[in-house]
Specification:
Blueprint: E1 4-11, E2 15-26, H1 38-47, H2 65-71, E3 94-98, E4 103-108, H3 114-127, E5 138-144, E6 148-158, E7 166-175, H4 178-183, H5 185-213, H6 216-222, H7 228-231, H8 240-244, H9 249-267, H10 279-303, E8 313-314, E9 317-318, H11 334-339, H12 348-355, H13 357-369, E10 372-376, H14 380-390, E11 401-405, E12 416-419, H15 427-430, E13 435-442, H16 457-460, E14 462-468, H17 480-490, H18 496-523, H19 528-538, H20 543-553, H21 558-569, H22 571-577
Parallel strand pairs: 10-12, 10-13, 11-12
Antiparallel strand pairs: 1-2, 1-7, 2-4, 3-4, 5-6, 6-7, 8-9, 13-14
Subcellular location: Cell projection, Cilium; Cytoplasm, Cytoskeleton, Microtubule organizing center, Centrosome; Cytoplasm, Cytoskeleton, Spindle; Cytoplasm, Cytosol
GO molecular function, one term: GTPase activator activity
Pfam families: Folliculin, Folliculin_C
Length: 578
């Protein structure tokens, strides 16, 4: 944690003073570096500022104590009494090394850097003058962006020779990150309170012993009145080590402050928050839960000798005992694992190159509108690969796949249907504007795509014929998302991975519009005029966009729908609406 912890004292002669401070120094060089780097350290110090500023470690050496004192930004020795001083002149200070993070915790009376000294000095003055809580003892928070933010805890230490038999101290924590410091308030309050209790406990024992030997209260009452400052002797300003009778006080405080900085820095870590689960994630979780319940039901029916309901047959094998509704789940398709050997279509861009721009646009339009997409082919791997690619354009909740069947299935059961070549499709489906058929036929000549797919022999033997009762005109505007998808696919500067991420973003954008429309129409029951205004605001007033939103509305998760309905039914919600 990039912060400074300091112990401050209000001296009756010199006012607020900093007694002892501990700061964090980050290693200027990578771990394991060696050599004489003192000159580089000094140059780095002068260029760097703020709480993370690195101090001159060399100035803590006893041999250079005299030169360090002459250039120190702290007060002169003549302006310091015994109560204002912690470490003796020439004391090297205390340094703790954290080998895990290559961080040093350095303690001394004042920060060596002038900017840090000014920040600590101002915080010290404010903590012992104007920024105090009622009773003058307790925690308080203050600060600004320029001088840093401060957590201050003021307290009293018993002293038999002081006015009022007590002296005023504070422990302050200074850092530039306001949010981090506020979030650390409970931790800092508990740990600093523990340090204060220990100091007060030691001082109380010394105070009681001195009062027992020579009671100061009775002596002062029997003394003739004179100004208090004039009657103080030379021992009136006493050091904290004298008040606590602890010669190792500063070493203990260094250990406590260093641990406080390390523990407070490690207790809060930054995490990447991805927000609430997407609709695709919620739908997948719901379908997995339904699949688990159905599998338990199948296990029970098998134990009772009952046949499973409506098995899908693929080449004489059951489709992993999955109903048509659950067969769309990628984790459910054991057929997918058992029969698929390779991905024939690598991506949407690959499919667009194979089918051609106009045929692909027609196919993609029907996919986005929710119309039934039928593939007739002898190669099951090719059909499954095509569905895997096409389904990426839709939310998970809008995808219903029957990968391969020996009979036609109605559109309410699936919007992706794979058929063997000999299956007869009803004539009203072939002429319907709500269906598109892709026939995979044997190529009339070899090497149909010699320039595009030299390394793919599987596609050289096929040709693809896309037909529909409602062909998409070339000059038709189409849904906005289709135009954006085509723009991404034709942009050769975008890799396949980038196009995939673009698809994810586009789906999330339009699913958010679907959520707004669902809330507006289904939950709030707004009139059509207001709905048209909303569609205009969403940029989806065109006919194709409206159809797309209505179809995608079927892909909303049950969790989201139930949450909205429960919110509307709650008393607080109804009161706010009224």
């Amino acid at each position: 944690m990039n912060a400074i912890v300091a112990l401050c004292h209000f001296c009756e002669l010199h006012g607020p003073r900093t007694l002892f401070c501990t700061e964090v120094l980050h290693s200027p060089l990578p771990q394991g570096a060696s050599g004489d780097i003192s000159g580089q350290n000094e140059q780095a110090e002068e260029e760097e500022g703020g709480i993370q500023m690195s101090s001159r470690i060399r100035s803590h050496s006893p041999a250079e104590g005299a030169s360090a004192d002459s250039s120190s930004p702290g007060p002169k020795k003549s302006d310091m009494c015994e109560g204002c001083r912690s470490l003796a002149g020439g004391h090297p200070g205390y340094v703790s090394h954290d080998k895990e993070t290559s961080i040093k915790y350095v303690s001394h009376q004042h920060p060596n850097h002038p900017q840090l000294f000014s920040i600590v000095r101002q915080a010290c003055v404010r903590s012992l003058s104007c920024e105090v809580c009622p009773g003058r003892e307790g925690p308080i928070f203050f600060g600004d962006e320029q001088h840093g933010f401060v957590f201050s805890h003021t307290f009293f230490i018993k002293d038999s020779l002081a006015r009022g038999f007590q002296r005023w101290y504070s422990i302050i924590t200074i850092m530039m990150d306001r949010i981090y410091l506020i979030n650390s308030w409970p931790f800092l309050l508990g740990k600093i309170r523990g340090i204060i209790d220990e100091l007060q406990g030691k001082a109380l024992k010394v105070f009681e012993a001195e009062q027992y030997g020579c009671p100061q209260r009775a002596q002062r009452m029997n003394t003739a009145f004179t100004p208090f400052l004039h009657q103080r002797n030379g021992n009136a300003a006493r050091s904290l080590t004298s008040l606590t009778n602890d010669e190792n006080l500063w070493a203990c405080l260094h250990t406590s402050f260093a641990w406080l900085l390390k523990a407070c820095g490690s207790r809060l870590t930054e995490k990447l928050l991805e927000g609430a689960p997407t609709e695709d994630t919620l739908v997948q979780m719901e379908k997995l839960a339904d699949l688990k319940e159905e599998s338990e039901g199948w296990d029970g029916s098998e134990e009772e000798g009952k046949p499973s309901s409506q098995p899908d047959v693929v080449e004489g094998q059951e489709l992993s005992k999955c109903s048509p509704e659950t067969s769309l789940m990628p984790d459910c398709n054991s057929w997918n694992i058992a029969h698929r050997r390779l991905s024939v279509f690598r991506s949407l861009r690959h499919m667009r190159q194979v089918l051609g721009a106009s045929a692909f646009r027609m196919l993609a339009w029907h996919v986005l509108m929710g119309n039934q997409v039928i593939w007739k082919a002898r190669d099951m791997d090719l059909v499954q690969s095509a569905f895997d690619v096409l389904r990426t354009m839709l939310p998970v909740g809008c995808v219903r796949i029957i990968p391969y069947s020996d009979q036609y299935e109605e559109a309410y059961r699936c919007n992706f249907l794979g058929l063997s070549p000999h299956v007869q499709i009803p004539s009203h489906i072939l002429s319907s504007e709500f269906a598109v058929l892709v026939e995979v036929r044997a190529a009339t000549r070899s090497g149909l795509y010699p320039t595009l797919f030299d390394d793919e022999q599987s596609l050289n033997k096929y040709e693809f014929v896309v037909t529909s009762g409602s062909p998409v005109a070339a000059d038709r505007v189409g849904p906005t998302i289709l135009n954006k998808i085509e723009a991404a696919l034709t942009n050769q500067n975008l890799s396949v991975d980038v196009v995939d991420q673009c698809l994810v973003c586009l789906k999330e954008e339009w699913m958010n519009k679907v959520k707004v429309l669902f809330k507006f129409t289904k939950v709030d029951s707004r009139p059509k005029e207001d709905t048209q205004k909303l569609l205009s605001i969403l940029g989806a007033a065109e006919e194709d966009n409206v159809k797309l939103l209505k179809f995608w509305m079927t892909g909303l998760s049950k969790t989201y729908k139930s949450h909205l309905m429960s919110t509307v039914r709650s008393p607080t919600s109804s009161e706010s609406r009224n």
